[in-house]
Amino acid sequence: MPGDPSGPSAPEMPIPKNLNYDAWLGSTPYVPYTEIGVHPQIGYGRPGWLRIEQFGSGMITGWGQHHYDIASWGMDTEYTGPISVEAIAEFPKSGLWNVHGDFMVKAEYANGVSMYTSGGYPNGIRFEGSEGWIFVSRGNYVASASDPVAAAKSSKALDASDPKILSSVIKDSEIKLQISEEHHLNWLEGIQKKTPVLSPVEIAHRICSICLISHIAMKLPGKLKWDPKAERFTNSEKANAMLGRPQRVPYGTNQFKIK
Fold first, then answer.
1. Which is the most buried residue in 2, 25, 207, 257, by most CB within 10 A?
2. Cα Rg for the chain, rounded, in angstroms?
3. Is the pTM of this model over 0.85?
Protein backbone atom coordinates (compact mmCIF):
# COMPACT_ATOMS: atom_id res chain seq x y z
CA MET A 1 0.00 0.00 0.00
CA PRO A 2 1.26 3.52 -0.67
CA GLY A 3 1.96 6.44 1.64
CA ASP A 4 0.19 9.80 1.46
CA PRO A 5 1.60 13.05 0.09
CA SER A 6 2.25 16.07 2.30
CA GLY A 7 -0.28 18.88 2.15
CA PRO A 8 -0.41 22.66 2.35
CA SER A 9 -0.79 24.78 5.46
CA ALA A 10 -4.38 25.84 6.04
CA PRO A 11 -5.72 28.87 7.96
CA GLU A 12 -8.60 28.54 10.43
CA MET A 13 -12.05 28.76 8.81
CA PRO A 14 -15.58 29.38 10.10
CA ILE A 15 -17.27 26.12 11.13
CA PRO A 16 -20.10 25.21 8.70
CA LYS A 17 -23.60 25.44 10.18
CA ASN A 18 -24.34 21.84 9.18
CA LEU A 19 -21.40 20.46 11.20
CA ASN A 20 -21.25 19.79 14.94
CA TYR A 21 -17.49 20.21 14.97
CA ASP A 22 -17.05 19.54 18.69
CA ALA A 23 -18.79 16.17 18.37
CA TRP A 24 -16.91 15.47 15.13
CA LEU A 25 -13.59 15.93 16.96
CA GLY A 26 -14.85 13.61 19.69
CA SER A 27 -12.17 12.47 22.13
CA THR A 28 -9.31 13.86 20.02
CA PRO A 29 -7.55 17.15 20.94
CA TYR A 30 -9.25 20.37 19.87
CA VAL A 31 -7.79 21.94 16.72
CA PRO A 32 -9.16 24.89 14.69
CA TYR A 33 -11.52 23.95 11.86
CA THR A 34 -10.29 23.96 8.27
CA GLU A 35 -12.07 22.25 5.41
CA ILE A 36 -9.08 20.29 4.08
CA GLY A 37 -8.58 18.91 7.57
CA VAL A 38 -12.11 17.51 7.72
CA HIS A 39 -14.00 16.81 4.49
CA PRO A 40 -14.91 18.68 1.29
CA GLN A 41 -18.27 20.45 1.50
CA ILE A 42 -18.85 19.60 -2.17
CA GLY A 43 -17.90 16.32 -3.82
CA TYR A 44 -16.21 13.25 -2.40
CA GLY A 45 -12.46 13.20 -2.74
CA ARG A 46 -10.10 11.59 -0.25
CA PRO A 47 -11.02 13.49 2.95
CA GLY A 48 -8.26 15.43 4.68
CA TRP A 49 -8.83 13.85 8.10
CA LEU A 50 -7.38 10.59 6.73
CA ARG A 51 -4.07 12.44 6.38
CA ILE A 52 -3.91 13.85 9.92
CA GLU A 53 -2.46 11.68 12.67
CA GLN A 54 -4.87 12.68 15.41
CA PHE A 55 -7.72 11.09 13.42
CA GLY A 56 -5.85 8.20 11.78
CA SER A 57 -2.32 7.08 11.01
CA GLY A 58 -2.42 7.38 7.24
CA MET A 59 -2.50 4.51 4.79
CA ILE A 60 -1.02 2.06 7.30
CA THR A 61 -4.43 2.14 9.01
CA GLY A 62 -6.55 3.30 6.04
CA TRP A 63 -5.79 0.41 3.70
CA GLY A 64 -3.71 -1.58 6.16
CA GLN A 65 -6.84 -2.78 7.93
CA HIS A 66 -8.04 -4.43 4.70
CA HIS A 67 -4.72 -5.82 3.49
CA TYR A 68 -3.56 -7.12 6.88
CA ASP A 69 -6.94 -8.81 7.29
CA ILE A 70 -6.30 -10.94 4.20
CA ALA A 71 -2.62 -11.45 5.04
CA SER A 72 -3.44 -12.63 8.58
CA TRP A 73 -6.13 -14.94 7.25
CA GLY A 74 -3.60 -16.55 4.94
CA MET A 75 -0.97 -16.83 7.69
CA ASP A 76 -3.50 -18.29 10.17
CA THR A 77 -2.67 -15.48 12.61
CA GLU A 78 -5.95 -13.56 12.67
CA TYR A 79 -6.43 -14.21 16.42
CA THR A 80 -2.92 -13.20 17.40
CA GLY A 81 -0.27 -10.79 16.14
CA PRO A 82 3.41 -10.45 15.29
CA ILE A 83 6.16 -10.98 17.85
CA SER A 84 8.30 -8.14 16.49
CA VAL A 85 7.96 -5.14 14.22
CA GLU A 86 10.46 -2.66 12.78
CA ALA A 87 10.00 0.13 10.25
CA ILE A 88 11.34 3.19 8.49
CA ALA A 89 9.21 6.00 7.10
CA GLU A 90 9.25 9.54 5.77
CA PHE A 91 7.04 12.16 7.44
CA PRO A 92 6.17 15.68 6.20
CA LYS A 93 8.18 18.50 7.77
CA SER A 94 5.45 21.11 7.19
CA GLY A 95 1.80 21.45 6.22
CA LEU A 96 -1.49 20.31 7.74
CA TRP A 97 -1.28 16.71 6.54
CA ASN A 98 1.28 14.89 8.67
CA VAL A 99 0.85 11.14 8.17
CA HIS A 100 3.57 8.89 6.77
CA GLY A 101 4.75 8.98 3.17
CA ASP A 102 7.07 6.30 1.75
CA PHE A 103 7.70 3.52 4.25
CA MET A 104 8.79 -0.07 4.85
CA VAL A 105 7.60 -2.32 7.68
CA LYS A 106 8.81 -5.79 8.62
CA ALA A 107 6.77 -7.92 11.04
CA GLU A 108 7.84 -11.34 12.28
CA TYR A 109 5.47 -14.03 13.56
CA ALA A 110 5.90 -16.93 15.97
CA ASN A 111 5.14 -19.39 13.16
CA GLY A 112 8.29 -18.29 11.32
CA VAL A 113 6.59 -16.11 8.69
CA SER A 114 7.91 -12.62 7.93
CA MET A 115 5.60 -9.97 6.47
CA TYR A 116 6.89 -6.94 4.55
CA THR A 117 4.78 -3.87 3.77
CA SER A 118 5.76 -0.99 1.49
CA GLY A 119 4.45 1.37 -1.15
CA GLY A 120 7.12 -0.02 -3.46
CA TYR A 121 5.11 -3.21 -4.02
CA PRO A 122 1.99 -3.67 -6.18
CA ASN A 123 -1.19 -2.81 -4.28
CA GLY A 124 -2.27 -6.10 -2.74
CA ILE A 125 -0.93 -9.14 -0.86
CA ARG A 126 1.58 -11.67 -2.12
CA PHE A 127 1.99 -15.00 -0.34
CA GLU A 128 5.35 -16.64 -1.01
CA GLY A 129 5.86 -20.34 -0.28
CA SER A 130 8.20 -23.18 -1.12
CA GLU A 131 6.39 -23.97 -4.38
CA GLY A 132 5.69 -20.47 -5.69
CA TRP A 133 3.57 -17.42 -4.89
CA ILE A 134 -0.03 -16.19 -5.04
CA PHE A 135 -1.03 -12.53 -5.33
CA VAL A 136 -4.46 -11.21 -4.38
CA SER A 137 -5.94 -7.69 -4.29
CA ARG A 138 -9.25 -5.88 -4.56
CA GLY A 139 -8.79 -5.67 -8.31
CA ASN A 140 -9.74 -2.40 -9.99
CA TYR A 141 -11.91 -1.31 -7.06
CA VAL A 142 -11.46 2.42 -6.32
CA ALA A 143 -12.77 4.07 -3.14
CA SER A 144 -12.56 7.58 -4.56
CA ALA A 145 -11.11 9.44 -7.52
CA SER A 146 -8.26 10.70 -5.33
CA ASP A 147 -7.01 7.26 -4.22
CA PRO A 148 -3.19 7.35 -4.09
CA VAL A 149 -2.92 4.29 -6.36
CA ALA A 150 -4.14 4.47 -9.95
CA ALA A 151 -6.62 1.73 -10.86
CA ALA A 152 -4.38 0.66 -13.73
CA LYS A 153 -1.68 -0.37 -11.25
CA SER A 154 -3.99 -2.64 -9.25
CA SER A 155 -6.31 -4.06 -11.87
CA LYS A 156 -5.44 -7.78 -11.56
CA ALA A 157 -7.25 -9.26 -8.58
CA LEU A 158 -5.57 -12.70 -8.62
CA ASP A 159 -2.23 -13.91 -9.96
CA ALA A 160 0.29 -16.66 -9.30
CA SER A 161 3.80 -17.78 -10.21
CA ASP A 162 2.20 -20.74 -12.00
CA PRO A 163 -1.29 -20.33 -13.55
CA LYS A 164 -2.06 -23.94 -12.61
CA ILE A 165 -2.18 -22.88 -8.95
CA LEU A 166 -5.22 -20.71 -9.69
CA SER A 167 -7.15 -23.55 -11.34
CA SER A 168 -6.24 -26.22 -8.80
CA VAL A 169 -9.15 -27.82 -6.90
CA ILE A 170 -9.16 -27.78 -3.08
CA LYS A 171 -9.41 -31.34 -1.78
CA ASP A 172 -11.78 -32.46 0.95
CA SER A 173 -8.77 -33.14 3.18
CA GLU A 174 -7.46 -29.57 2.75
CA ILE A 175 -8.49 -26.36 4.51
CA LYS A 176 -11.78 -24.93 3.28
CA LEU A 177 -12.88 -21.45 4.29
CA GLN A 178 -16.33 -20.10 5.01
CA ILE A 179 -18.04 -18.78 1.90
CA SER A 180 -19.53 -15.29 2.04
CA GLU A 181 -21.50 -14.11 -0.98
CA GLU A 182 -21.85 -10.59 0.45
CA HIS A 183 -20.34 -8.99 3.56
CA HIS A 184 -23.45 -7.13 4.70
CA LEU A 185 -25.60 -10.27 4.23
CA ASN A 186 -23.09 -12.32 6.25
CA TRP A 187 -23.36 -9.78 9.08
CA LEU A 188 -27.17 -9.68 9.03
CA GLU A 189 -27.42 -13.48 8.94
CA GLY A 190 -25.07 -13.61 11.93
CA ILE A 191 -27.46 -11.36 13.87
CA GLN A 192 -30.62 -13.19 12.82
CA LYS A 193 -29.35 -16.78 13.07
CA LYS A 194 -26.82 -16.27 15.89
CA THR A 195 -24.12 -17.81 13.68
CA PRO A 196 -20.41 -16.83 13.57
CA VAL A 197 -19.61 -14.09 11.06
CA LEU A 198 -16.70 -14.19 8.67
CA SER A 199 -14.95 -11.23 10.32
CA PRO A 200 -15.78 -11.06 14.05
CA VAL A 201 -14.84 -8.07 16.16
CA GLU A 202 -11.77 -9.67 17.75
CA ILE A 203 -10.20 -10.21 14.33
CA ALA A 204 -10.92 -6.57 13.46
CA HIS A 205 -9.20 -5.51 16.69
CA ARG A 206 -6.20 -7.75 16.03
CA ILE A 207 -5.77 -6.43 12.50
CA CYS A 208 -6.06 -2.82 13.63
CA SER A 209 -3.40 -3.57 16.25
CA ILE A 210 -0.94 -4.59 13.50
CA CYS A 211 -1.58 -1.26 11.77
CA LEU A 212 -1.01 0.77 14.93
CA ILE A 213 2.11 -0.98 16.19
CA SER A 214 3.54 -0.65 12.66
CA HIS A 215 2.90 3.09 12.89
CA ILE A 216 4.63 3.23 16.27
CA ALA A 217 7.61 1.39 14.77
CA MET A 218 7.82 4.09 12.08
CA LYS A 219 8.43 6.60 14.87
CA LEU A 220 11.08 4.65 16.81
CA PRO A 221 14.42 3.16 15.74
CA GLY A 222 15.28 -0.53 16.02
CA LYS A 223 13.22 -3.69 16.40
CA LEU A 224 10.25 -3.56 18.77
CA LYS A 225 9.32 -6.86 20.42
CA TRP A 226 5.59 -7.38 20.81
CA ASP A 227 3.68 -9.73 23.10
CA PRO A 228 0.42 -10.42 21.20
CA LYS A 229 -1.20 -12.04 24.26
CA ALA A 230 -0.54 -9.14 26.66
CA GLU A 231 -0.72 -6.62 23.77
CA ARG A 232 2.32 -4.78 25.06
CA PHE A 233 5.85 -4.14 23.85
CA THR A 234 8.40 -6.06 25.91
CA ASN A 235 11.51 -4.00 25.16
CA SER A 236 10.34 -0.38 24.99
CA GLU A 237 8.29 1.59 27.51
CA LYS A 238 8.47 4.52 25.13
CA ALA A 239 6.59 2.44 22.57
CA ASN A 240 4.08 1.31 25.22
CA ALA A 241 3.41 4.95 26.08
CA MET A 242 2.34 5.46 22.45
CA LEU A 243 -0.37 2.78 22.66
CA GLY A 244 -2.83 5.31 24.11
CA ARG A 245 -3.41 9.03 24.59
CA PRO A 246 -5.50 11.36 26.79
CA GLN A 247 -9.15 11.60 25.71
CA ARG A 248 -10.99 14.90 25.54
CA VAL A 249 -13.90 15.33 27.97
CA PRO A 250 -16.80 14.58 27.67
CA TYR A 251 -15.99 12.21 24.80
CA GLY A 252 -14.00 8.98 24.81
CA THR A 253 -14.17 5.55 26.39
CA ASN A 254 -12.72 6.81 29.68
CA GLN A 255 -15.91 8.83 30.29
CA PHE A 256 -18.09 5.73 30.73
CA LYS A 257 -18.27 3.37 33.69
CA ILE A 258 -19.58 -0.16 33.36
CA LYS A 259 -21.49 -1.36 36.42
1. 207
2. 20
3. yes
